[in-house]
Amino acid sequence: MFQGITGYVRAVDGVDVTIKRGSVLGVVGESGCGKSTLARVLTGLLPATDGNIEFDGVSMLTSDASAKRKLRRRMNIIFQDPFSSLNPRMTVAKLIGEPLIAHGLVKSAIERDCRAAYLLEKCGMFADQVYRYPHQFSGGQRQRICIARALAADPEFIVCDEAVSALDVSIQSQIINLLMDLRESSNLTYMFISHDLDVVRFISDEIAVMYLGQVVERAPKNELFENTAHPYTRALLAAVPTFEKEKRQKRILLEGDIPSPSNPPPGCRFHTRCKEAMPQCSKEQPAMKEVSPGHFTACHLYN
Fold first, then answer.
1. For residue 54, what are the β-bridge partners?
2. N or C: which end of the chain has fewer CB within 10 A?
3. pLDDT digits (tens, 9 = 90+) for 24-36
4. Pairing of strands 295-297, 214-220
């Protein structure tokens, strides 16, 4: 009775994105739209129930255990909360050294500590702080430790899952600048997840907008902000506060509640809250269409 399957939650459903090497893909959307689930699936923290994930041409789902282990070394994730993502009973040297030991990149504790000290300095901290514990640091310093841990195994791809949303504004700018510098110096590729559209526009090359587990619009950052296509994206941009009167947009209120991902509505998933919905929207799911070079949207308005 209690072990039977009664249904499925489609947290991420039919997401199709490609991230170019050395670029930054920003992912935005309301809370609960599947951004963090997508991040965890891409990094192997959650198993994908269907579809495929390719990293540098190699499938993460069909590869054997040895190949998956090699792929996981080439990617990492920075979590949202720097307080809960660090073990309070471990020193910074052990926290940063965990990936090094897991992948066999160091042979001794001294070598591990030296590597941890180097990574700390690279992230703007002092080498002698490797023997302290997480509670001895501020929120911004903890996030720097998380970034150093993400860099430990020399990854090529890093997912930033709302990596600055738990920090105050002044520290946010420092962490964003650090991520930009590391991208240039280490040729990193990012997926940057955030609710702050201004931050996403600053750091990203391309932006994907998610709604209820699906990508509804994808475009280069300037194209997305200047020529918004999907009604949901327009509502997100209209909600961004600004002090400049000429840049203020008329607020677009989204009425109704977000549908449940366990029972999504038929057709376009946004049609229950869209003021531009047509009869076709409730019957047929729109396909992703290129409305301008590099600008894709899933909306019947453009079919």
1. 59
2. N
3. 999 999 888 999 9
4. antiparallel
Q: With contact defined as beta carbons under 8 Å apart, do 30 and 211 qualify?
A: yes
Burial class (CB in 10 A: 0-12, 13-18, 19+), 227: exposed
At residue 248, does pLDDT exceed 70? no
Whether residue 149 is predicted with pLDDT greater than 70 in this model: the reply is: yes
Type of residue at 202: F
Q: Which tokens hold the place of 68?
A: 């998956």
Residue 303, token pair as written in the block: 């079919």
Residue 67: helix, strand or coil by DSSP? Answer: helix
Distance, C-alpha 16 to centroid of its chain: 14
pLDDT for 257 beyond 70: yes
Helices and strands (DSSP H and E) totals, the chain: 9, 10
